[in-house]
Design a protein that fits this description.
Rossmann fold, alpha/beta, 4-stranded parallel sheet
Length: 466
C-alpha cells in the first residue's frame, strides 16, 4: 500500500479571514512539503445549498477558506490552471448549489484578481473519463474530465457530523466525485465498502480541512458550532483520524468507512502513527480543542434517530425499520433511512416544528417488517426495493421501489401527502431550481455529455442484453 506523509498540521484559526487563511495555507503547504504544479483540481464540500431561509453555511466549505487556498496556489509559478469542481447531492444540480452557496459569485470575482486561469466546474455537466479501480463495489468509475485529468488534487472538506456515517471529512468527500448514476450504486448496507473503493482514485495530494465552524447533527441541515481550527496534511486518512478525535470519536473504530480503509491496509491505522504539528502536538492537545464543540447533546446528534426526533416534535409520523434480508437481522443504516433523515430534516428547517405536530398520521417502512402491521387507517410509505410488510387496514400504500430512495425522491413523490407542504411548491425554491436544471440540460446537450452517456449505455448495457 502506497503510504503518504503522516504529518497533520493543526492550526488555531478562530475566524474566517481571507488574508490570514491564505498565509496559513501557504505556510502549511511549504512546511508539509507539498509543491503544487500543473492543472489543480480543488474539491470542496458543496454537498447541498439552498435558500438562506433553510440553509446553514456550515453545510459547505467556507468561501474564505476556498479563496485563501486559491490565492495561495496562484502564487506558484508551476501551477497552470485552478479548477474548483464538485458534484452535489443526487437530485440537486451542482450549479444550483454553487449559486446558493455563493461559489459562482466568488469565483467570478477571483477570476479578475488572480493571474492564473480559474474555473468552476460541476462534474454532473462534464464529459467523463473511465478510470479503473478494481474495488469490492466498483471495478471502474466514470469521473468528470476536470477531476480525472488534473495533475494534482486538493480536497477542501468541511468537518461535519453525519447522520449515518458518523462524520464527513476527506475520505467521505469522495462520494462527490461520482455522478448521480454511479453515486446511487450500493449506497446501501455496502456504502462503507463503496467509499473505501473510491479512495483508490480519490486520494488527494493535499487536504485543507475547514474546521473553523463545523456542522453537528444532520450533515445536510446541520447546526453550527465553533471549533476554530484548520487542518492540513498530505494523507487524507491521517487528517480524518485527527478530525474524528475532535468530534469525540476514535476514527479507526467509530467511523465505519475509515475502519474499512484501515482493514484494507491503508495507513495510518491510528492516531499513534500520526505526527501532529502546528498548534496541536499531542492527543491531549486535540482533546482540549474538542472541548470547544461540546456538549455531545441531542443537538449534536440531531436527526440521527428518526423516531426520537419525531417524538421530540410531537409528530404522528412513525418509522418502522427492519432488516434488509430474510437471512439476516442486520438493518441497512446507510441507504433509504439516510434519505428519510435528510428529507425530514429539510422539512423541519422549512416548515418548522408545528407542521410536524399537525402532520397526517403516517407510517414509513424501510426493510422487512416480519410481524403484521396494523396501519389503523394511516397512509403507509414503503421505501426501497428490499422493503416489505404485511399490512392491515392501511388507508393508502405508496412504495418507492428504488435502491436507494433519496431525499429528493421523497420530496417529489410524497409531495404534501404527509400533511407537510414541501418547498418544491414554493416559488423561491422552484424557479431557481428549474432555471439551473434547464441550464444544465442545455450544457450537456451541446457539449456531448448526453451523447457520451447514450453511447456508454449502448455499448455496456443494451448490446449485452441483446
Amino acid at each position: 500500500m502506497n503510504e503518504k506523509d503522516n504529518r497533520v498540521m493543526v492550526v488555531d484559526c478562530k475566524e474566517y479571514d481571507v488574508s490570514m487563511l491564505k498565509s496559513i495555507v501557504a505556510s502549511g503547504m511549504e512546511k508539509l512539503g507539498y509543491k503544487p504544479k500543473g492543472k489543480i483540481a480543488l474539491k470542496p464540500n458543496v454537498f447541498c445549498a439552498f435558500h438562506p431561509d433553510v440553509w446553514e453555511p456550515s453545510t459547505v466549505t467556507n468561501l474564505d477558506v476556498l479563496e485563501g487556498a486559491i490565492r495561495a496556489l496562484a502564487e506558484y509559478s508551476e501551477v497552470s490552471r485552478i479548477s474548483v469542481t464538485e458534484t452535489s447531492a443526487v437530485g440537486n444540480p451542482t450549479r444550483f448549489s454553487f449559486y446558493w452557496a455563493g461559489y459562482k459569485d466568488r469565483i467570478n470575482k477571483l477570476k479578475k484578481q488572480i493571474a492564473k486561469p480559474l474555473e468552476l466546474k460541476g462534474m454532473d455537466e462534464e464529459k467523463r473519463v473511465s478510470v479503473f479501480i478494481g474495488g469490492k463495489i466498483h471495478d471502474r468509475v466514470r469521473l468528470g474530465r476536470t477531476f480525472a485529468l488534473a495533475d494534482s488534487k486538493i480536497y477542501l472538506p468541511k468537518l461535519k457530523c453525519h447522520c449515518v456515517s458518523k462524520m464527513t471529512g476527506t475520505v467521505k468527500l469522495n462520494v462527490g466525485i461520482l455522478n448521480y448514476d454511479e453515486r446511487s450504486i450500493r449506497h446501501d448496507f455496502m456504502l462503507n465498502e463503496k467509499i473505501a473503493d473510491l479512495y483508490a482514485v480519490g486520494n488527494p495530494d493535499f487536504t485543507i480541512m475547514d474546521a473553523i465552524t463545523i456542522g453537528v447533527g444532520n450533515e445536510a441541515f446541520p447546526s453550527s458550532r465553533h471549533l476554530g481550527l484548520l487542518l492540513m496534511g498530505k494523507n487524507g486518512l491521517a487528517v480524518d483520524l485527527v478530525a474524528a478525535k475532535l468530534l469525540g470519536m476514535d476514527g479507526a473504530k467509530d467511523v465505519p468507512y475509515l475502519a474499512e480503509l484501515i482493514s484494507r491496509g491503508y495507513k495510518p491505522a491510528s492516531l499513534s502513527e500520526i505526527e501532529l504539528t502546528g498548534d496541536a502536538r499531542s492527543v491531549s492537545d486535540l482533546e482540549k480543542f474538542a472541548e470547544r464543540v461540546k456538549p455531545y447533546d441531542d443537538e449534536f446528534y440531531r436527526w440521527q434517530d428518526v423516531n426520537k426526533e419525531l417524538n421530540r416534535l410531537n409528530s404522528p409520523l412513525k418509522l418502522l425499520h427492519g432488516p434488509y434480508s430474510e437471512a439476516s437481522s442486520a438493518k441497512c443504516e446507510t441507504g433509504c433511512v439516510m434519505g428519510l433523515k435528510m428529507y425530514l430534516g429539510f422539512l423541519e428547517k422549512y416548515a418548522g416544528a408545528d407542521a410536524f405536530a399537525k402532520a397526517n398520521p403516517c407510517l414509513f417502512i424501510i426493510g422487512k417488517i416480519k410481524e403484521p402491521v396494523d396501519a389503523s387507517g394511516k397512509n403507509v410509505f414503503i421505501f426501497g426495493t428490499c422493503s416489505s410488510a404485511t399490512l392491515k387496514n392501511p388507508r393508502k400504500v405508496i412504495k418507492l421501489n428504488n435502491c436507494f430512495v433519496t431525499a429528493s425522491d421523497m420530496m417529489l413523490m410524497l409531495g404534501a401527502q404527509i400533511g407537510i407542504k414541501p418547498p418544491v411548491y414554493d416559488p423561491k425554491f422552484f424557479f431557481p431550481y428549474l432555471s439551473r436544471m434547464l441550464a444544465g440540460i442545455a450544457v450537456k446537450s451541446f457539449n456531448g455529455r448526453y451523447l457520451q452517456d447514450f453511447a456508454y449505455y449502448l455499448g455496456n448495457q443494451f448490446f449485452r442484453k441483446l
